[in-house]
Design brief:
The protein is mainly alpha-helical and 315 residues long. The chain folds into two domains: 116 residues, no CATH class; 155 residues, no CATH class. Helices cover 69% and strands 0% of the residues.
Length: 315
C-alpha cells in the first residue's frame, strides 16, 4: 500500500512509464503522424475526426473507465475492511483466551502455569493463522515463516494440507474443545470461542472470494481497448482542427490521453489487492501489528518492531 506522501513524484512517474510505455509511445507517434500528414491531406478534417465526435467518444470512454475504477476500488476497500476485521477479531480472540481460560473457570487447566502455556499455544497458533492467510492470498509458499509460532511437528503436518489457514482454525477449535471438555456449565465458553472462530472463517472466505473471482476478460479488454482508441483519437481531433499546430494543443493532448491511461492503469492495479503489488493490502504490516498486540497481551516484552515502509510502500 502506498502511504501518504509515499513514493514521491519521481518513483510514481517511473512506475507509470514502465507500465504504460507502449501506450505513451503510441500517443507520441500519433501526434507526430497527425502533425506530419495534416498539411498534405484533408481526410483528417472530416466530421468523423471532428472535435465534437471525438469528444463524444471520450465522454463514453470516460464513463466506462470510471465505472470500472469504482468496481476495482470497491474490491480493494473490501479487502482492507476484511483485514481490519481480522485485526479486531485477533484482539478479541486473545482477550477471550486470557480472561476465560483460567483454572477457576476451567478446572481441567489445573495450575496458572498450565494456563500461561495454553494461552501462548493458542495465541501463537492464531499468529500462524494470520500469516498463513497472508501467504496463501499472495500465492507464496514460504511456510517456514510460521516456524516461530508452531511446533516442528505441527508445522510439518500443516504443510500436507492444501488450505493451511483452514486447518489452523480447525486446530484451534479442536484444542479448545479438548480443554473445555464436555461439562455443560462450560459450554457457554466453547460457544463463545466457536463464534469467534466462525468470524475468522468469514474473513478468510471473503478474502478468498476476492482473490479467486477475477474481472471478466471482456471488461479488461474493452477498457484497455477504449483507452488505446481515445489515446489515438484525441490527437487527431485536436491537431487536425486546423493547419497550425500550437504547443498548448500538443500539451493538452498529452494531458488528456495520460489522464485516461492513469485511471485505467490504477483500476487494473486495485482490482487485485492480494498480488504483492504497490497497491496491495498491507498484509505483512498488519500481521506484524497483530503480532505486537497479541504478544503484549501475553505479557511479553521482547517483541519485533512494526514494519516500516520501503520507498513509500508498506507491504
Amino acid at each position: 500500500m502506498i502511504i501518504r506522501r509515499g513514493t514521491g513524484f519521481k518513483r510514481a512517474l517511473e512506475r507509470f512509464i514502465v507500465r504504460n510505455w507502449g501506450l505513451i509511445l503510441t500517443v507520441i507517434l500519433t501526434e507526430q503522424l497527425v502533425v506530419f500528414i495534416s498539411p498534405y491531406t484533408s481526410v483528417l478534417e472530416t466530421d468523423v475526426f471532428s472535435a465534437t465526435a471525438i469528444g463524444l467518444i471520450a465522454t463514453v470512454v470516460g464513463i466506462f473507465i470510471v465505472f470500472r475504477f469504482n468496481e476495482a476500488y470497491q474490491r480493494w476497500w473490501e479487502a482492507r475492511i476484511l483485514w481490519g476485521a481480522l485485526v479486531n477479531d485477533s484482539r478479541t480472540f486473545t482477550r477471550e483466551v486470557i480472561t476465560m481460560l483460567t483454572p477457576d473457570r476451567v478446572p481441567s487447566i489445573g495450575t496458572p502455569e498450565n494456563a500461561v502455556k495454553l494461552h501462548t499455544e493458542l495465541v501463537y497458533r492464531h499468529l500462524a493463522y494470520c500469516n498463513a492467510l497472508r501467504l496463501s492470498l499472495r500465492g507464496q509458499d514460504s511456510w517456514d515463516e510460521l516456524a516461530p509460532f508452531l511446533s516442528a511437528e505441527e508445522l510439518r503436518e500443516l504443510k500436507t494440507y492444501e488450505n493451511k489457514p483452514t486447518r489452523l482454525d480447525r486446530s484451534q477449535g479442536e484444542r479448545l474443545a479438548e480443554v473445555i471438555g464436555t461439562d455443560t456449565a462450560q459450554h457457554v465458553l466453547l460457544m463463545q470461542f466457536d463464534s469467534t472462530l466462525n468470524r475468522l472463517y468469514d474473513i478468510q472466505g471473503g478474502c478468498e472470494r476476492i482473490k479467486n473471482t477475477a474481472f471478466p476478460d471482456e471488461v479488461r479488454f474493452i477498457s484497455r481497448g477504449l483507452v488505446w482508441l481515445s489515446a489515438i483519437a484525441v490527437p487527431i481531433a485536436f491537431l487536425s482542427a486546423d493547419r497550425e499546430v500550437r504547443v498548448i494543443e500538443v500539451l493538452a493532448v498529452i494531458v488528456i490521453s495520460l489522464s485516461f491511461m492513469v485511471v485505467e492503469q490504477l483500476g487494473a492495479s486495485l482490482k487485485n489487492p492480494f498480488e504483492n503489488d504497490d497497491n496491495d493490502t498491507p498484509m505483512t504490516a498488519l500481521c506484524r501489528t497483530i503480532e505486537i498486540d497479541l504478544r503484549q497481551q501475553l505479557g511479553e516484552t521482547k517483541i519485533p518492531p512494526p514494519i516500516e515502509p520501503i520507498g513509500g510502500v508498506l507491504m
